[in-house]
Amino acid sequence: MSRFDVVEQGPPIEVFQLMKLFAEDTFKDKVNLSVGAYRDEKGKPWVLPVVRKVEKKMAEDETLLHEYLPVLGLEQFSNASVSMLLGQDNPVIAQGRAFGVQTLSGTGGLRVGAELLNKHLKYTTFYYSSPTWENHHLVFMNSGFTTPKVYRYWDPNTRAIDFDGMIEDLSNAPENAVIILHACAHNPTGIDPTREQWIKIADVMEQRKLFPFFDSAYQGFASGDLDNDAWAVRYFVQRGFELVCAQSYAKNFGLYNERVGNLSIVVNSAARVAPLKSQLTWIVRGMYSNPPAHGARVVATALSDDKLFDEWRDHIKMMSSRVMEMRQALRQELINLGTPGNWDHIVKQIGLFSYTGLTQQQSEYLVSNYHIYLLKCGRINICGLNRDNVKYVAAAIHDAVTKIHDPRARL
Question: Which of 62, 125, 138, 319 could lock 147 by a disulfide, CB 3.0 to 4.6 Å apart?
Fold first, then answer.
C-alpha cells in the first residue's frame, strides 16, 4: 500500500499530448497545427536575430552574475513592459499610477493578478469568453475564485463574435465580477471586437462596475503594430478604469521556455502603488519566491535600446505578415478545391490561431487519416502552414468536410 494510492490518473493536457504524438509520428508529411508557437517557412522554430544578438552581448558581459533578482523582478524590464503596453507618453505613467511586476510569463501574470484580486479585494466571480484559452478557468480557480461564469463570444453559424450575446451576459454580471478580456488576437477564435464594439464593452463594464483583467499574449505579433494591438487596453485606461493586464513575451520575442512575463497594474491613485507592491511581494514570495533573470534581461535590453527596438519591431512585422500570407493561401486553396462552405473567416481572423469551424469528428479525422495535428475544437495554428504543406492541408480539410458533414454546422 502507498499513501499515494488515493491519487487518480489525471487527464492529459490536449495540446501537449498532440505535441508528443506528433514528435513520435514517423509519417514524412505530418503537419503540426496544434501548439501555439511561431514556425518559419520551413516549419522550424525561429530564434529572433535580435534575441541572439542580445544574448551574445550578455555572454560577453562579465558584470552579469547569477544572483537572485528582487522578488518583484527586474525593474528595468517591468518599466519597459508597462511603457510598451500603455504607450510611453501615457499620463498614468507620469502620474505614478501604473506599475508592473515581473512574472512567469503570461500564465504567471494571470495567477499573481488573480490571487491579488481574490485575497485582497475579495473578488470571487470571474467571467471568461466562450470559448477561451483553456487555462483561464484552471488558473483562476486555483487562485481562490469560486464562481466561474462564461460570456458568449463565438457564433458558430456566422463564425464571428456573438456581440449581442456578449453584451447581454456582461450586462447581467454581478458588480465586482472580474472579466477576462483578450487584448488582441483572441485565443482560440482569432476574432477581436472592433473599436466601436470595445467602446460598448467599456460602457457596460463601467455601468455594471465590472473589473477588467486583460490577457495580452500577442502584442505586436497580432497585427505587426504594437500600438494597434494595445488599443483596447489603452482605451480602458483612458476611460479611467483601474485594471490589471498579464503580458507574455513568449510569442512576440520567441522566448517560450524562458517564461518572461509582466503584470501591469493601473490604479486611480499613486498612493495605492506602495501597498499593492508590498502585498504582491508576499504573493510572489509564497508562490515562486522570485523570477528568473535571463529572458527578462533580453527583453529589457531590446526594449530600452532604440536600434534593437526597431530591429525587433521588424521581426514581429515579418512574423505577422507571414501569418497573414498563410491565411490567404489556405483560404484560396479551399476555394480552388470547391470545399463546401464559406471560408472568409480565415482571413478575417488575426493572430496565430484560426477557429476553422471544423467539428471534433472532422478534426480527429485529419489526425488519424492525414497526420495533421490540431485541437478537437478545430483550432489550428496558422504558423504551422507553409508553401510546402498548405495544399496538402487544404486537400485534407476538403476531404474531411466532404465526407463528414455535420448537418448542424453551417459551413
Answer: 125
Q: How far is CA 186 from CA 180, 183, 191, 219, 322, in A?
A: 11, 7, 6, 11, 18
Domains of the chain: 13-46+319-403 (3.90.1150.10), 68-304 (3.40.640.10)
Return the active site residues: 133, 215, 251
Which grid coordinates are listed for 357?
469551424
HEC-encoded secondary structure of the chain:
CCHHHHCCCCCCCHHHHHHHHHHHCCCCCCEECCCCCCCCCCCCCCCCHHHHHHHHHHHHCCCCCCCCCCCCCCHHHHHHHHHHHHCCCCHHHHCCCEEEEEEEHHHHHHHHHHHHHHHHCCCCEEEEEECCCCHHHHHHHHCCCCEEEEEECEECCCCEECHHHHHHHHHCCCCCCEEEEECCCCCCCCCCCCHHHHHHHHHHHHHHCCEEEEEECCCCCCCCCHHHHCHHHHHHHHCCCCEEEEEECCCCCCCHHHCEEEEEEECCCHHHHHHHHHHHHHHHHCCCCCCCCHHHHHHHHHHHCHHHHHHHHHHHHHHHHHHHHHHHHHHHHHHHHCCCCCCCHHHHCCCCEEECCCCHHHHHHHHHHHCEECCCCCEEEHHHCCCCCHHHHHHHHHHHHHHCCCCCCCC
Nearest residue to 120 via CA among 277, 264, 245: 277
Sign of the dihedral defined by the CA atoms of residues 46, 259, 262, 307, in that order: negative
Per-residue confidence (pLDDT) for residue 411, from 0 to 100: 40
Q: Which of 206, 185, 155, 122 is nearest to 327 (CA)?
A: 185
Q: Do 358 and 373 touch, CB atoms closer than 8 A? A: no
Q: Which residues of the chain have pLDDT under 50?
A: 407-411
Distance between CA atoms of residues 307 and 271, nearest Å: 36
Residue 406 has a pLDDT of 58
Looking at residue 408, its pLDDT comes to 44
Q: Convert the pLDDT of each residue in 397-408 to its tens digit.
A: 999 999 886 544
Q: Give the number of other Cβ atoms within 10 Å of residue 152's Cβ.
A: 17
Whole-number percent of the chain with pLDDT over 70: 98
What does the alpha-carbon distance between residue 122 and residue 272 come to, in Å, rounded to a whole number? 17
C-alpha cell, 341:
462552405
Task: Give me the helix-helix angle, 75-86 and 294-304, nearest 10°.
Answer: 50
